[in-house]
Amino acid sequence: MQLDFRVFEPQSLVDFLAPRLPRDSEPLTTLLTQGRVHINQHRAQCIRTSVYPSDTVWLDLPDHWEAEVDCNWRIVWQNHEFLVVDKPPGLPVSRTTRNLFYTLVSLVRRQSPWHEAHLMHRLDAETSGLILLAKNSHVDKKWKKKASRLMAEKEYLAWVFGQPSWQYYDLECTISERSDSAIRNRMYVCESDTLAYTKPQLSRTEFTLVKTQGEYSLMRCRLHSGRKHQIRCHLAHLGHPIVGDKIYAFDGEYYLKRLQQPLTAKDYQILGAEFQQLQAVRLMLQMYGKSFEVELPVEA
Question: What is the pTM of this model?
């Protein structure tokens, strides 16, 4: 496996790589001796070698393997403190048991000038769309506790199963994991006083029907709280789980099956898609007395 690091300003190889190397990496001098560092297509010989904008530094990790994911992220908006990035489906935002380096935050740190970038919130790995990152640790610390005010509005689009009987629905309820659930991280709407609910939290989402298309419907979802799996849980509770959602569609049957064996083409055909069809499409930021709206184009 190879890691790529993009260069954005002239400096020495050691100054460039020192703050970017994985924490458990061997010393740079050892990596050079082993021939595991390349600048563009050439093996690096000296830590004082200069690197320049448009150069790519490659680090070989011969004994490391990660799951293949779509790494095509892109910046859609930025100012002096923040980036708003469009994340592809399937790319985890931070390290998982299967991916340490091929994550959104790791890619941004390696492929942009902001090697200290931090996530300001999270998206599920299969959810695509807009996500906010701080450009450095100072900005992250400055705004982290004010994140809910900073991100004043968040909207998503979701393709769901079925045709709702309503055009608009405002769902406010308590959701929680259950200690007796076969899927440990699945969220449920709390409908009784059972002790199985582990940590009930209030949640609210507004849903607006955009259109129906055959057996599917497109929903615009506006978050008023940021609980785990909130939109997915709410839509499943309303009887319209998201297309491709392995946890909440078909009562989690395909999530549990995937734990034992790979899903088949027929399984994905039933699910309707390889990834859950949920996309973060609009983000309203409020800072310094101004509002900044970031929105992805939506197909008619």
Answer: 0.92
